[in-house]
Hints:
single chain; alpha/beta; Rossmann fold; 2 domains; six-stranded parallel sheet; binds NADPH dihydro-nicotinamide-adenine-dinucleotide phosphate
Amino acid sequence: NTRILLASRPHGEPTAENSRLETVPMPEPAEGEVLLRTIYLSLDPYMRGRMSDAKSYAAPVEVGAVMQGGTVAQVVQSRDPSLAEGDIVLSHLGWQAYGVQPARQVRKLDPQRAPISTAVGVLGMPGFTAYAGLLEIGRPQPGETVVVAAAAGPVGSAVGQIARIKGARAVGIAGGPEKVAWLEELGFDVALDHRSPTFKDDLKAAVPDGIDVYFENVGGHVWDAVLPRLNTYARVPVCGLVAHYNETEAPAGPDRMPRLMQAILTKSLTIRGFIQTEFVKTHYKEFQKDAAGWLADGSLRHREDVVEGLENAPEAFFGLLTGKNFGKLLVQVSDD
Ligand code: NDP
């Protein structure tokens, strides 16, 4: 079995030295457990947080432990009556080719229903994050303007499309002309490149009636451009701040806090952070039904960026934090 460990904690951008590939004997399942072969490993921005020991909503990965991650895997050996050899499951094996998990901690997938990789993408955690954060906190109304950044990623692309399904205007922000072109193809009303020197003015022109919902995925210079455009009673689901994950010190420049607090007060803003798990009980069932329907009727489209081979996971992950991925980033660890 091969697996990737956290070798040391990164300072700033993670590098090759922070991870280590090792070969170990095959694990053996105990009663009630299954031995699984990883097919897809999902790479997600939250993993940067797990590499760090700064206090957060989840415990860090210990140095010397296998990196965590969601996986789509196949049962190789089952010691539980609920699963049989050959079954495909959603699991959390982390960055390893094989692993053992209690059968009750995995969810069996139906490969006839949708391609199995969607269980960690549009029909899984990222899709659900978009759905719950947008509908529960953002609450877009028909005709309102919804803006989302990292819009070519799995969360952002779903946010914009669900906003359109709900009758709102969707403005997507992404890095580079290829991603912008894809957002236009998806039906975003306007797509903008945040790397363009005219980005601030482009955003202003794209939201003539201001912004009613800003789904925050990145922070940084995008947030700086968005804040002055927010309307009275705008809602801001704060989902992620990927522009800051590799930061080692406070950004240069003047203290922005007074201007932010003043905007919150005078525009009666609702700025509400969330971790998707809080909505699982209340919204997951509804999400699965809605998302499967939208996927089937073509109103929700998605894109995957598949990297071959577990050994290439660290480099692919570093690229995720700087926009090198185009779509949901997956590692194909073995054949499906
Ligand atoms: P993506 O695949 O969208 O990857 C992140 C993207 O962020 C990059 O591709 C890049 O796209 C963009 N980005 C990186 N740096 C910057 C920057 N400085 N300025 C602007 N954009 C930048 O990831 P996901 O869709 O999986 O996740 C999106 C966000 O949602 C993340 O912040 C993540 O942490 C968060 N999240 C939160 C959850 C929750 O429960 N709260 C659950 C799941 C995800 P580009 O090339 O377009 O710049």
